Every structure is written in structure tokens, then in C-alpha cells.
Description:
Helix content: 25-40%
Radius of gyration: 22 Å
Strand content: 15-25%
Distance between the termini: 48 Å
Shape: globular
Strand order of the largest sheet: 17-18-16-15-21-22-23
Number of helices: 17
Number of strands: 23
Amino acid sequence: MDYMIGIDLGTTSTKAVLFDDQNQVVAQANYGYPLYRETTDMAEEDLDEIFVAFTNALGAVVRKAELSKGNTIKAVSFSSAMHSLIAFDKDWNPLTRVITWADTRAVNFTEELKASGQGMEIYQKTGTPIHPMAPLSKMLWLKNDKPEVFEKAAHYLGIKEYLFHRLFGANKMDISIASGTGMFNIFELDWDKQALEVTGVKKEQLPETVSPYEYETGMHKELAAVLGLPEDVPFVYGAGDGPLSNLGVDAVQPGVAAITIGTSGAIRVVSDKPVIDPKGRTFTYALDKDHWVVGGPVNNGGDVFRWAKDNLFDAEKSTAALLGQDPYDLMTEIASKIPAGSDGLLFHPYLGGERAPIWDANARGSFFGLNHGHTRANLLRAVLEGITFNVYMVSLALEEVVGSLKSIQATGGFARSPLWRQMFADIFEQPVTVPQAFESGALAAVVVAQKALGQIDDLYEISKYIGKSNTYQPDPENFEAYRELAPIFIRLSRQLQTEYDNIAAFQRKHVKPSDKK
């Protein structure tokens, strides 16, 4: 049997999925790693912890392939979290941990770049909104706040590029990941001269940019032995997780939106050319040079649900453990008892600042409308609705750029929750379809590998392998509540924005790392 492996490099875990020659899942393994938040704005990962998780996950599914019985691994291909940055010295010693998309320490330099007017100029060429998530801003932060690192830095990579360097000694970045750095000109398909000038980074400090269909062979012998793989197995670069999520749920036709809620979230559509928002609200990232994903990302998705579990539902977490249940299933059951609209309670989910639609790294979360009648169940439903309202607000901006959305394909952790799926259908007032293939990112990565190796000619071949889909229709009984609350949610997000800078400044001044969980 011939197999392929899709690797999903996420913010808090790495998953490896083994597919057979019919693109059916045979085995999978998932290993996590912590996200370090030692200060208010920090969000870092440890390189060695990521590498161990990667090798454990990949090694586990390789063993399932039973290569000793004559089976083969035809390729390993990647879907990767975007916007990460690692600085290395001239001898390739790391000078930083992985600075992730969620790190917002560059907020002051980001605001200065926006105010200068150069920010919009760079956005119009790179398609990456000016925000602390982007390596562009992170480099400005290093330059100004960590000059000892910036001056020693000879190379900059992201999380996936680090793995390829460690496995093969390569120094390359696919154009999909590059298009999310804020430094890559999406019209010229090269590093942007103005972005380089603003940061003071030289082109030779950045990796060579390559097609997502590029691959490496000749893995370091000792690592091949650890993984149980032949040294000549092709490792395909693949693409960013956002673009591949659209491909993985077959949301590649005009007007078909993909919504993903994992740790963070996004809503995206595919275009055959780069599309720039005159107001700078949406991103444009490459899937490949012929397919461009336009959308908006949100910082606050499943991580906010996890915050609610850990801080509001500790007793239920213990109960679920005793009963052998998933605590999230128990929580959604509790939330389902509350009517749509949470009895007039709104929640703005900006626990980690926010990207789209407000692009404000100083944003903070809040409940609005609390009264004596509200319970923890109301709080929980409001949390889920708040995440959904926020994505809906992004969709309104997206429609201004690409036109009306015709349908929604859903993926990510929330796609497993019937309550949350129905909530999206009701708030968007559109059918929400959930493909049977939950491992959409890994499947899309494998399809990219098949095209890279010449096994298929067209990415649209993926539609054969998505499997059956479940579609959730909007429930008119819930329209009235959501139609009344959505405008309040949107207006309130704008009104609160005038005070976000002040409350964020207070937290940075008075909340010490030791005060945090």
C-alpha cells in the first residue's frame, strides 16, 4: 500500500495524519506543546518542544504504515500556522523562541507604522493587514526593544521553515507562508523593498521563496532513523493553514466561504487574483500563484471557549472526567438550555486583542447586559454567541470586498459541535455545511503533495475525497433575537474601542506575570 502523510502544524499542537491511496484516513497522532504567556502580550513556543511533538506525531503514524511489510510513504506534506517568527544567528543558533501570531508586543510600533501612512502603502502591496501578528511588526519590535537580538540576527524563519532547516538544512519558505509575513509583495512574488527598508532587514536574511509544490529529499540520516523513514521520502512544503482549510473543505468556488474555528478562527473565500480592501480590513494570502484566499482572521476562537471551561466551569470539568465525557460536550449541553440571545447578554471575546474586524491588539473582552437573572449557563452561551457574532462582523467587511457569500463550509473544532454549527447558521442566516472529512488541513496538504508529484493535475480533485456532508439550515425561530442583538454587538464594539488603549495600558502597568495563571 502507498501512503501519504499530512502534517498540521498548529499553534498548540502538531498533528500527523496517515492517508491511504484513496485519501482515506488510516491513522493519526496529535502531540501538544504549551504557549508561553509570561507577560500580558507574549505568546511564544519552545523550538525543541515543537520538534519533539513533530517527531512524535510523525513517527507514530509512520509506525502505523508498517513499512517493514513492503508499504511505502510517497510523501509528507504540510499545513502550517502562519505569521510565526524565529531569529537565528549566523551559525543558525536560535536567538528567540517561536514568536507566534498571537504575540502582540509589537503593538506600539504597529500603531506608529499605521499612523505614518507607510503601513497602508505596505498593506496594498503585501495583502497583510498592519497588525502585531505579522513578522513585519515583530521585526520592528525586535529592532527597537531587543536590539541585542536584532543586531545578531542573520536569518529569520517561521515554525515550518525551522523544521525543514533541521531536517534538511534548507533555508526556504513557500509563497503561501511568505504572503502572511507582511513583507512579501503578492503582485511581484518577491520580498517587498519598502517593507525591507522599514524594518532594516536585508533580503539575504530572509529565506528563498518557493512554490508550495516544492519538496526536499535527502533528510539527515540520524533524523530519518528516528522517524523510521527512508532518507529520500519527499517532504512537500505545502501552504498556510488558512488557505489549505479552504481547499480542504472544497470552498474554492466563487462566493463559497470557509469558516474555521480552532484556537483562533477565520472566514475566507478564494479568488483567482490578489484582492486588496481599500480600508485595510481583510488579508490576501496565496494558496499558490493561481489561487488567492481573501478573508479575515480572529484571534479569539476555541481558546476563549477553553478559558470559559477553565475559569467558569471547573466543577463540570471534574464531573466530565468522572463520567468519561468530553467537558466541552457537557458545556455545550448546558448552553443549549439557554434561548438564542442568552436573555440579552452579549460577550465581546477579545481576550487576546483582536485582528479582524477591528484590528486592535489592545482590545479586551467584556460581558454587556448582565443582570440578576443571568446564570453561568447564560455566560457560556453568550461566550459562544460572541465568538460567532465577531466572525459575522468580519463577514460583513469581507462581502464589501468580494461580493455576497452564497454558502458556508465549516471546519475546525467548532464543526464538531451541533449547537455551535446551528448557531452559525442562525446568526448568518445561511446554511452551514460540515464536510465529513474533519482533517481538512492535512487532507489538503496531501492533495498539494499529489499535485507536486504529478499524480493529479488539478487541486479541485479534492472534491472526490471530501465525503458526505451535513448541512445545518437556519432556524427562523432564532432570527428575531439575533437580528436585534447583532447591531448592538457591532455598535458596542466600536464604542468600547475608545477605551481599549487605556485598559490595556493599565494591565501592562499593574498586572505582573506572577499574577497570571
